[in-house]
Automatic annotation (TrEMBL), chain A:
Keywords: Oxidoreductase. SMART domains: CO_deh_flav_C (SM01092). Pfam families: CO_deh_flav_C (PF03450), FAD_binding_5 (PF00941). The keyword Oxidoreductase applies. This is Xanthine dehydrogenase family protein subunit M. Residues 1-222 form the FAD-binding PCMH-type domain. It comes from the Bacteria.
UniProtKB/TrEMBL annotation, chain B:
Keywords: Molybdenum, Oxidoreductase. Pfam families: Ald_Xan_dh_C, MoCoBD_1, MoCoBD_2. Residues 13-129 form the Aldehyde oxidase/xanthine dehydrogenase a/b hammerhead domain. The keyword Ribonucleoprotein does not apply. This is Xanthine dehydrogenase family protein molybdopterin-binding subunit. It comes from the Bacteria. InterPro entries: Ald_Oxase/Xan_DH_a/b (IPR000674), Ald_Oxase/Xan_DH_a/b_sf (IPR036856), Ald_Oxase/xanthine_DH-like (IPR016208), AldOxase/xan_DH_MoCoBD1 (IPR008274), AldOxase/xan_DH_MoCoBD2 (IPR046867), AldOxase/xan_DH_Mopterin-bd_sf (IPR037165). SUPFAM superfamilies: CO dehydrogenase molybdoprotein N-domain-like, Molybdenum cofactor-binding domain. The keyword Ribonucleoprotein does not apply. It comes from Phytohabitans maris.
Length: 325, 740
């Protein structure tokens, strides 16, 4: 591992300033992504600013019935928080289906949103990879791409966004609060994740030094009926082949409200807006679900090894919606 | 007897020291820089920045690494000679033959500094075209004269297969593709090298300390007596530590260079390119049978991706042409020369994949004939080996019957795709299992010493790699000496002790227990002889064969009250200790016996046909490994083997990216093995069969038979569940899911 410096400031302003003024600095939360990538030489930060002394560890009530997840709250704590389990079951389930218990005990909510892709060519440190070394090309497009995305791809990058949590958050319209050198701002979760386009190195709109402090879950009734389903080769400790976060309100056999997001298939956590539009006011039947799923996936861009994700995603969507209705 | 592991407390408390935990004064750390291309030449290596980095002691490249004294020649370690894993030693010139091949070794005063400096070494390559997949090399496939370091023929045939197939009433033709597999022992290989003048001590994570000793002495031109190898605990091997790979000798060379002890531990990614793998392969089988199920023809072909150095393939057709009676058989291995390191043994070598092909083909044949799959095996099982020799011990029929009954096979409705539970289709399947007993090892030796106080030390140069060998050998020694287990300490893991071969090919229990048993009984006999010849002994004048030993006391079988302890007779002779050597030489390889260990495997799966997911619900196996020395450790070995088979069936596989010639998976996040959540209920029946050929204790070994046949049972169950036969391993979702 490269030699580097380490700091552990006690206040947010210092932390932000330290990272802002040094382009080779990064925040360190649970370290489960950051230290891993430093060890394998993919991240090359010279300064780690440990933010674990900062006060963003709690899960708090929001006026209006929402919940605020502190950026430093641990995945395992949030997953087992009674309020999260009761009011945002998809969030709890997504967390518990991610990584392993040991990792979840370290990993934070803020870090989870900033985790990097699992593309093997990105991680090997030497293959052409526009995300790691802009302009070098993308080894995955014509390579071993079983795990790669079919939605939101670009000719420059097809890596899947790996987070489970983010899929649930995107379905439930969470809000990301950040503070930075220029003050604080809130970013809608769907805008927090950026399509690769021609700049896949950029994954979110944070400026150098901007710090996530909290993620808000809005107080909506439908969220309490949300669910998260993850399809994967083995039963634990693996990223999704396909995952679905969904919530559905049906009355008199008609879909009145729906939230749908996909994981494992998109270059960003994929809010399935086409499917949602198809479903609104449609009959709550398997046919509607299949039609909506097919519409969402109609724009899929498949490669040699990942074409199966299209039928897999369609089937998962249909089954999850059927169960949710 | 089911006895707890003697090494259990040390392992669970962390007191056990594995190779990469050995602390020596002044220890330095070496790390390998592996080639990033599969083929070509090194134009230039820039070591300047690495040398300037903090704590760096040396950067070795082909330009300054000394030449090895003798070129290596691959030979399986069981043979008991030098056993390099490939006929190639790196860093002798500028040629690159495979990605991951060591091109530099960096030594520093800490592991982190060594790894950082390694990342600063700049290698400029001139790349040449490479072959890293079967598809790329298919057209240049060839049939080698022999395999396995020349030990086995690449082609074996009997009768006339074409005529047999033409005569058949029913014919089954199958072909499969198998992705490459990696062993992924949880402890990656590591070596610590410590020179004292011209004498070298190696701490090595190996399945064969003797093989390490001989290989390193050979490559470095040292007297064997100047090389000592010490290995107390090994964190799994599965074949990856059966041969001696280049990093071991590189560690010794680096230590000599820097004049300090050096530890070289492979990283997880390096483990994918440094200790062999199971090669990418294709296998095809044709079965011809009469209506009643009698087999009349069996053709089994295998195509493997091998290395530029060795005609290596796991021999897959020797067992498949023996299990069932069949007059016309043919087994052929063909190779494609590829730019990978030489592949190697992987748990259940040959049989793991070969028996999969046989047993899925047999399942298909059972369906074609409308015969129950268990019944078909019972009908077809050969009474003798193909030469007409009786099995040293059999047990297949009993395994099939017992496992079928434990599993509840009788109630099975054979029709595929008939059972559904919610989203899941349920299926069951079975397979026979067989694994060879190999008599290619030299004489095995052990030493037993008893002290007048009644405590004993029994020694032999094997090593504990998690199989329970130290526990079982303590039992065997205590049994042979007639002492309680607590009175016996078993010592192993040092080449200064009497030598045994590498514990591979499931032969550890058989050969080591034979030597230990013979040493212990030789010592017992020596003391009994002393007593019966001693006029002061209550046993004076007795026939030695009338004397037994119980709890350290020699006594007359017919009148147990007559006797005395070992200590008493030793005391009268003023002996503080007594010692005996024991050895065991295997029967010649052409011994007139069929030599296979048999078993039967059953599986129940649930398949989600929409998603393509297979979840194994139950595994049941029955095995006939001769005499079972310790049912507890044997059961653990067999369960581990069966879960391995499940991984082989469903998860384990690696692909080469042919453009880069590098493996796509080089971590445990990408190369999937089963986790606890995947583990089903496993039941095991042990069938004891008498075997007088395989050594004085009649123990055949359980290290691999548990792994053989599991994948076939699972694949057959997937067929039963879904009505579809999957022709690739692993059977991943995209292969199993119903087509859109
Ligand atoms: C083996 C393994 C398996 C995994 N499996 C899954 C899985 O199945 N599903 C899943 O969703 N995830 C999985 N993960 C990813 C895991 O969830 C993330 O690594 C973790 O959530 C990151 O959180 P952290 O606190 O450890 O972040 P760190 O590693 O500390 O940081 C990650 C990145 O985020 C930045 N960062 C951290 N906190 C902030 C902040 N507050 N503001 C701005 N930037 C910040 C850091 O600078 C760094 O670049 C897995 C990880 C591993 C290692
Ligand atoms: S998919 Fe993206 S991350 Fe992977 S190699 Fe291509 S550019 Fe890099």
């Amino acid at each position: 591992m490269r030699p580097l410096s380490y700091a552990r400031p006690h206040d947010a302003a210092t932390a932000v300033a330290m990272v802002e003024r040094d382009p080779a600095a990064a925040f360190l939360a649970g370290g489960t992504t950051e230290v891993d990538l430093l060890r394998i030489g993919v991240h090359r930060h010279d300064l780690l600013v440990d933010i674990n002394e900062l006060p963003y560890r709690e899960v708090e009530e929001l006026p209006g019935g929402g919940l605020r997840l502190g950026a430093l709250s641990r995945m395992s704590d949030v997953a087992r928080d009674d309020r999260v389990m009761a009011r945002y079951p998809a969030v709890s389930q997504a967390l518990l289906l991610g990584a392993s218990e040991q990792l979840r005990n370290m990993a934070t909510i803020g870090g989870n949103l900033c985790q990097r892709v699992r593309c093997g060519y990105f991680r090997d440190g030497i293959s052409p990879c526009n995300k790691r070394h802009p302009g070098t090309g993308c080894a995955a497009i014509d390579g071993i791409n079983r795990g790669h995305a079919v939605l939101g791809t670009s000719p420059h990058c097809i890596a899947t966004h790996p987070s489970d949590l983010a899929v649930a958050l995107v379905a439930l319209d969470a809000l990301v609060h950040v503070i930075g050198p220029g003050g604080s701002r809130a970013i809608a979760i769907d805008d927090f994740f950026v399509l690769p386009g021609d700049a896949p190195q950029r994954e979110h709109p944070l400026a150098q030094g901007e710090l996530i402090v909290a993620v808000d879950l809005p107080g909506e009734v439908i969220a309490a009926r949300s669910t998260y389903v993850k399809v994967r080769d083995r039963q634990s400790y693996e990223f999704a082949l396909v995952s679905v976060a969904a919530a559905l309100t049906v009355s008199e056999g008609v879909v009145r409200d729906v939230r749908l997001a996909l994981g494992g298939v998109g270059t960003k956590p994929w809010r399935a807006r086409i499917a949602e539009a198809e479903l609104m006011d449609a009959p709550a039947t398997r046919e509607s679900y299949e039609r909506a799923a097919a519409a969402e996936l109609s724009g899929a861009d498949v490669r040699r090894y990942n074409a199966f994700k299209v039928p897999l995603a369609e089937r998962t969507i249909a089954r999850v919606l059927e169960r949710a209705s | 007897m089911p006895v707890d592991r003697v090494d259990g407390p040390a392992k669970v408390t962390g007191a056990a020291r594995y190779t990469a935990e050995i602390v020596l004064p002044d220890l330095a750390y070496a790390t390998i820089v592996g080639a990033t291309i599969p083929s070509g030449r090194i134009r230039r290596i820039d070591t300047g920045r690495a040398l300037a980095a903090g704590g760096v002691l040396a950067v070795l490249t082909h330009e300054d690494l000394p030449r090895v004294a003798e070129p290596p020649h691959l030979l399986p370690s069981l043979v008991g000679a030098a056993a390099p894993g490939e006929s190639f030693f790196p860093m002798q010139d500028d040629a690159v033959h495979y990605a991951g091949q060591p091109v530099a070794v960096v030594v520093a005063d800490s592991l982190e500094r060594a790894q950082h400096a390694a990342s600063l070494v700049r290698v400029d390559y001139a790349r040449t075209p490479a072959v890293t997949t079967l598809d790329e090399g298919r057209d240049s496939a060839y049939e080698p004269p022999t395999l396995f370091g020349g030990l086995m023929p690449a082609r074996m045939s009997r009768g006339d297969v074409d005529a047999g197939l033409a005569d058949a009433d029913v014919r089954v033709d199958v072909s499969y593709h198998f992705a490459a597999n990696h062993h992924n022992a949880i402890e990656t290989s590591a070596t610590t090298a410590d020179w004292d003048g011209d004498r070298l001590t190696l701490y090595d994570s190996t399945m064969g300390i003797r093989a390490t000793q001989l290989t390193v002495a050979h490559l470095l031109g040292l007297h064997v007596s100047d090389v000592r190898v010490v290995t107390h605990f090994v964190g799994g091997g599965f074949g990856s530590k059966a041969m001696t790979w280049p990093h071991v000798t590189l560690a010794a060379m680096a230590a000599r260079q820097v004049g300090r002890p050096v530890r070289l531990a492979l990283t997880r990614p390096q483990a994918f390119t440094s200790t062999g793998h199971r090669e990418e392969q294709e296998q095809a089988m044709s079965l011809g049978a009469k209506r009643d199920g009698t087999l009349i023809a069996l053709r089994h072909h295998k195509l493997s991706l091998a290395s530029p150095f060795d005609d290596w393939a796991e021999p897959a057709t020797a067992t498949t042409t023996q299990v069932y009676a069949c007059p016309n058989t043919e087994g052929v291995h063909r190779l494609v020369t590829g730019n990978t390191m030489t592949p190697t043994f992987t748990r259940g070598p040959g049989e793991s994949v070969g028996v999969f092909v046989l047993e899925t083909a047999m399942d298909q044949l059972a369906y074609e004939l409308g015969v129950d799959p268990v019944e078909l095996r019972l009908r077809c099982h050969a009474e003798t080996d193909p030469r007409g020799n009786p099995w040293s011990s059999d047990g297949l029929a009993e395994c099939l019957r017992v496992a079928a009954s434990s599993f509840g096979w009788a109630r099975r409705d054979p029709r595929p795709r008939m059972r559904r539970e919610g989203d899941w289709l349920i299926g069951t399947g079975m397979a026979a299992a067989a694994y060879p007993v190999a008599f290619i090892m030299p004489t095995q030796r052990a030493r037993a010493r008893i002290y007048a106080g009644g405590d004993a030390v029994v020694q032999t140069g094997t090593q504990e790699f998690g199989t329970g060998v130290t526990t079982v050998m303590t039992q065997v020694a205590a049994d042979g000496l007639g002492l309680p287990m607590e009175a016996v300490r078993f010592e192993a893991g040092d080449t200064d002790l009497p030598n045994t071969s590498a514990a591979v090919g499931s032969s550890g229990a058989m050969m080591v227990s034979a030597a230990v048993h013979n040493a212990a009984t030789a010592l017992r006999d020596q003391l009994v002889a002393m007593a019966v010849a001693d006029s002061g002994s209550p046993l004076h004048g007795a026939e030695p064969s009338d004397v037994e030993v119980h709890d350290g006391r020699m006594r007359l079988r017919s009148r147990p009250e007559v006797g005395e302890t070992y200590g008493e007779v030793m005391g009268r002779h003023h002996l503080e200790d007594a010692e005996a050597l024991g050895s065991w030489t295997p029967p010649p390889p052409d011994t007139p016996h069929g030599l296979l260990t048999f078993g039967a495997q059953f599986a129940e799966v649930a398949v989600d046909p929409e998603f393509g997911l297979v979840r194994v619900r139950r595994l049941g196996g029955a095995f006939a490994p001769g005499r079972v020395l310790n049912p507890k450790t044997a059961r653990s070995q067999l369960i581990g083997g069966m879960l391995w088979g499940m991984g082989q069936a469903l998860l384990e596989g690696n692909r080469m990216d042919p453009r880069q010639g590098r493996w796509s998976a080089t971590s445990l996040g990408d190369y999937l093995v089963p986790v606890n959540a995947d583990a089903p209920d496993v039941t095991i029946d042990l069938i004891e069969v008498d075997d007088e050929v395989v050594g004085p204790l009649g123990a055949k070994g359980v290290g691999e038979i548990g792994q053989v046949g599991v994948a076939a049972a699972i694949a057959n169950a997937v067929f039963h569940a879904t009505g579809r036969r999957i022709r690739e391993l692993p059977m991943t979702a995209e292969l199993v899911m119903d087509p859109p």
